[in-house]
Specification:
This protein is mainly beta. The chain is built from 5 helices and 30 strands. Helices cover 7% and strands 39% of the residues. A 6-stranded mixed beta sheet has the order 10-9-12-17-14-15. The longest helix has 13 residues. The radius of gyration is 21 Å and the shape is globular. The relative contact order is 0.15. The N terminus is likely disordered. The protein binds CU-O-CU linkage (C2O) and copper (II) ion. The site of copper (II) ion (CU) has 5 residues, from loops. The site of CU-O-CU linkage has 10 residues, from strand 5 and strand 29.
Length: 485
């Protein structure tokens, strides 16, 4: 247990660190995690989701009802909770009425059987308006996950169509409380009474089209009550379609205990760059009654406060801050000695580069370039054909089941790309630009011109997507699939 002391030292040292411009966390750790906890009984949880347009006000829409697309009658995403070992049976109805507006559900980060992965055309038929579809699987890992549709996602996610999926069963010593912090923007007009266009060619060719109203759990910079002097688990999700945020907390010691849902040896959080779809679980020691902690996005000229945790009530803990790690996930470790090498290069197409050069930040005229919005980005020089999913290209790679692959993810663009792989969690080994702790992830952020090496055992047979999770990049070409057989 000796390295828990080093967490303390790190956290104490950070308490005096300055607020602004803090670098990425760069811990080196070697601590072994407690072994995986056994799953509980396989009881079944039933979930009914009806994708539909519903006129609902968001907490951040100044009382205006918006034409949201949601899975339930509430404006904010449903929170689905299971215990490890439980089966989730979902009945999905497509209640959208626009002709051809099909849906399906991708359970992001869940290592499930391929036919439950929710990618239209690749693993299932799309669910057309008026149709329904059933999913059934037992999530194999505890952690913080989410789900979303997988076609026309710029608009569907832009209008709110998603849910959160929490699999309990990883706490070795329970924390005192838990809060979910789902971070995203909304593309709202100035009085917040309606949506702005979700996709712009200027955005798609650059960093993406940012929302205009930032939110946590649908609210602008909310106050969230937490118990005082307590160890609180925060499940932080970047569920934005576009924006990369650099998340940190001011006013408390905080440690990261999981990345993309999966346990990592705790390390002090200074700030963590989170691309769309990335998650971290953080434990922090809340202040005494009346005190507050602010969650910031530091990835801005001046840090943007996103939410405030307000401590209330009698002190729960008096001993030093020393949160227990989560139990390890049950994931096959890559066999690096026997790994096969694979290179993936993420680039702009000729058109994409021209768009990026031609379009001013103000979105100036683009001329004939507008005609080929379908292919601005590529993986290994291959752009996904068309903006939908119905034209499947050949697979970008074929992997042999059971083999370890060591993949070099090379970003040759001046933009960031959070790269997501379906059906597997990989180990992030190293970056050409940063010191990153080795950790499991299903989505890894490539900084501009950065190369990151990851490795994974291709142990889940089927046809799996790999794509940028800046949805406009995904839907303008930076998407591919690979086969494990
Ligand atoms: Cu969260 Cu293929 O996506
Ligand atoms: Cu991208």
């Amino acid at each position: 247990m000796l390295s828990r002391r080093s967490v303390l030292v790190g956290a104490a040292a950070l308490a005096g660190a300055g607020l602004f411009g803090r670098p990425d966390a760069a811990p080196a750790f070697s601590r072994a995690l407690p072994p995986p906890l056994p799953p509980g009984p396989e009881t079944t949880v039933r979930l009914d989701l009806t994708a539909a347009e519903r006129q609902l006000a968001l907490p951040c829409s100044n009382g205006h009802a918006l034409p949201l697309w949601t899975f339930t009658d509430q404006a904010t995403p449903p929170i689905v909770r299971l215990k490890l070992g439980q089966r989730l049976d979902t009945h999905l109805i497509n209640g959208l009425t626009r002709p051809g507006e099909h849906v399906s559900i991708h359970w992001h980060g869940i290592r499930l059987p391929n036919d439950q992965d929710g990618v239209p055309y690749l693993v299932q038929q799309p669910v057309e308006p008026g149709e329904s579809y059933d999913y059934s699987f037992v999530p194999p890992d505890p952690g913080t996950f989410f789900f979303h549709t997988h076609c026309n996602t710029v608009e569907q996610l832009g209008r709110g169509l998603m849910g959160l999926l929490i699999i309990e069963g990883d706490e070795t010593e329970p924390y005192d409380a838990e809060r979910i912090l789902a971070v995203r923007d909304w593309r709202l007009n100035p009085d917040r009474s309606g949506f702005l266009p979700f996709l712009t060619l200027e955005g798609a060719g650059k960093a993406g089209t940012f929302g205009t109203v930032r939110s946590v759990n649908g609210a602008s910079n909310p106050d969230i009550e937490v118990p005082a002097s307590a160890d609180v688990r925060l499940r932080v999700l970047n569920v934005d379609p576009t924006r990369v945020s650099e998340i940190g907390f001011d006013g408390a010691d905080a440690v990261v205990v999981a990345i993309d849902g999966l346990a990592c040896p705790p390390f002090p959080l200074r700030s963590w760059k989170m691309g769309p779809a990335m998650r971290i679980d953080v434990v922090l020691r809340t202040p005494a009654d009346g005190g507050s902690v602010t969650m910031f996005d530091y990835f801005a000229a001046s840090p943007v406060p996103l939410a405030r945790l307000v401590a209330r009530g009698p002190a729960i803990r008096t001993q030093r801050f020393d949160p227990a790690p989560l139990a390890a996930a049950r994931i096959a470790p890559p066999d690096l000695g026997k790994a096969e090498q694979q290179l993936f290069t993420f680039s702009a197409t000729a058109t994409g580069a021209a768009v990026a050069d031609a379009a001013g930040e103000d979105g100036g005229p683009l001329g004939p370039l507008c005609l080929s919005a379908g292919s601005l980005w590529a993986i290994n020089k291959q752009s996904w054909p068309g903006s939908g999913m119905d034209r499947l290209p050949p697979p970008i790679a074929r992997f042999t089941r059971g083999t370890t692959y060591r993949c070099t993810l090379k970003n040759v663009t001046p933009r960031m790309h959070p790269i997501h792989v379906h059906g597997h969690s990989f180990t992030v080994l190293r970056s050409s630009k940063r010191t990153l702790p080795p950790h499991f992830a299903d989505t890894v952020l490539l900084l501009p011109e950065e190369t990151i090496e990851v490795a994974f055992v291709a142990d889940n047979p089927g046809r799996w997507m790999m794509h940028c999770h800046i949805i406009e990049h995904q839907e303008t070409g930076m998407m591919a699939w690979f086969e494990v057989a």
